[in-house]
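subagent[fold] <- orchestrator: predict structure for attached chain, return tokens only, no commentary.
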Amino acid sequence: MRRRSFTDQPLLDEQGNPSPAAAVAAERRWWDFETIAPTPRDKLSLSLIFAGLALFLPTVWLLVLTDNPSSKPYFTPHAPLNALAISCFVLGIVPVQPPTPGAVLRAERLSAHQAWLLGLGIPAMLVGTGFMWYNKENNGAEHYTTWHAWFGCLTLTWALLQAAIGAGSVWAGGWVFGGGARARSVYKYHRPDL
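subagent[fold] -> orchestrator:
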């Protein structure tokens, strides 16, 4: 039998007063390991995610930055920035994956999700892709001649579409999609990708 965590308890009692769980939830933050990973399975998953990122991001940056980056000034930023974007996407998805917490933690996790994705991930991807685009233009090379280029274009388009659906269904009560139940019905198309 699994022990009840503070995320299983309501934040308000029957009279609408803050419960003991609310005090615990207010003290914990989305980055608290126990909050993000309440079960042993979650702890293992989170550890594997962080181990993967600890290998992925430095490896990409090391490979690119030790291969005479000054000889390719407009190509060099492409891989490190897109690797940073992928890492931010993973870090942005992690806070919203654990079981649904109370309202306080859910709001904090949504803020973290948006900060990683919209604050750093998508801008890094746009700038990294922009450098590649400029590199092709600067050298008179054709665009979209490889599967890598097409996959990159598809990935960028998908990320922007997901950001638009996610933001439109949450910001300002989801007014972009009609608010309330209508916004929640559109949100389901954003959530499965997480």
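orchestrator: received. Logging for downstream: The chain has two domains: 20-143, 145-193. The longest helix spans residues 103-138.
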